[in-house]
């Protein structure tokens, strides 16, 4: 769908079909829809930056985002890419603290934003809503632990296979493509670009993945699982 075809109602329909919002009850979905607005971001445009004050919670409708956090050497480490159904921004908002990570649109991206004032009002009216946002924080923390566990895998082949499955799961698009460049993919896995290219080349020849310009697609998830377990 072209980005100019989106409206808030259709965007919310997508988010109610997958991800955190889809797991909430109809009444809660209705309340959250009442404080939502549609946002459009161009490729590489920041949604927010580390150190900024929280400006709400975001749900990803179409496109993808990349999440990075500042390293001690002053550079940013790109830790994760995510697609449709991904929600973020809750941790800093409910901690009343600055953002810990920077998030940019990896491509033209459509989102829904829940305003901080609206969230505060809904939680005041119904404190039980805290549990719904805790569920979001739990899901994102689980993803963070998966990323840490991936980096702890010593075997390069196993680490790359594991990360490809993780990124594919985070991009539930109909076509299955994950839009990420090889340099960014190498950084995600803490391997050199030549090492990544050699490994991906073997995976392509084995029929496990397919490559395109600035994108990659998992073709045989079971085959990648066999590498991880082998």
Describe the overall structure:
- The longest helix has 23 residues, at 129-151.
- This protein folds into two domains: 3-150, Jelly Rolls; 154-229, Winged helix-like DNA-binding domain superfamily/Winged helix DNA-binding domain (Arc Repressor Mutant, subunit A, Orthogonal Bundle), CATH 1.10.10.10.
- The protein is globular, with a radius of gyration of 18 Å.
- It is built from nine helices and eleven strands.
- Helices cover 43% and strands 22% of the residues.
- α5 packs antiparallel against α6, α6 (156-169) runs antiparallel to α9 and α7 (182-189) packs across α8.
- It has helices at 8-15, 26-33, 90-95, 116-125, 129-151, 156-169, 182-189, 193-205, 221-229; strands at residues 36-41, 46-48, 57-62, 65-70, 76-82, 87-88, 102-105, 109-114, 177-178, 209-212, 215-218.
- Residues 20-123 form the Cyclic nucleotide-binding domain.
- It comes from Methyloceanibacter caenitepidi.
- One of its GO terms (molecular function) is kinase activity.
- This is cAMP-binding proteins-catabolite gene activator and regulatory subunit of cAMP-dependent protein kinases.
């Amino acid at each position: 769908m072209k980005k100019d075809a989106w409206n808030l109602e259709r965007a919310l329909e997508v988010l109610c079909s997958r991800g955190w919002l889809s797991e909430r009850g109809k009444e809660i979905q209705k309340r959250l829809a009442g404080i939502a607005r549609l946002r459009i971001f161009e490729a590489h445009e920041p949604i927010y930056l580390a150190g900024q004050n929280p400006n709400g919670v975001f749900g990803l409708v179409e496109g993808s985002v990349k999440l990075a956090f500042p390293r001690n050497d002053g550079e940013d480490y790109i830790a994760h890419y995510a697609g449709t159904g991904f929600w973020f921004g809750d941790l800093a908002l409910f901690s009343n603290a600055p953002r810990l990570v920077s998030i940019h649109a990896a491509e033209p991206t459509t989102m829904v934003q829940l305003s901080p004032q609206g969230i505060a009002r809904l939680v005041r009216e119904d404190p039980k809503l805290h549990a719904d946002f805790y569920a979001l924080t739990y899901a994102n923390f689980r993803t963070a632990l998966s990323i840490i566990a991936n980096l702890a895998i010593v075997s390069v082949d196993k680490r790359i296979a594991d990360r490809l499955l993780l990124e594919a799961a985070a991009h539930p698009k109909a076509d299955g493509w994950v839009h990420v460049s090889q340099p960014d993919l190498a950084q995600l896995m803490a391997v050199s670009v030549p090492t990544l290219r050699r490994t991906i080349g073997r995976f392509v020849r084995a029929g496990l993945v397919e490559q395109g310009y600035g994108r990659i697609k998992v073709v045989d998830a079971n085959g990648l699982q066999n590498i991880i377990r082998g």
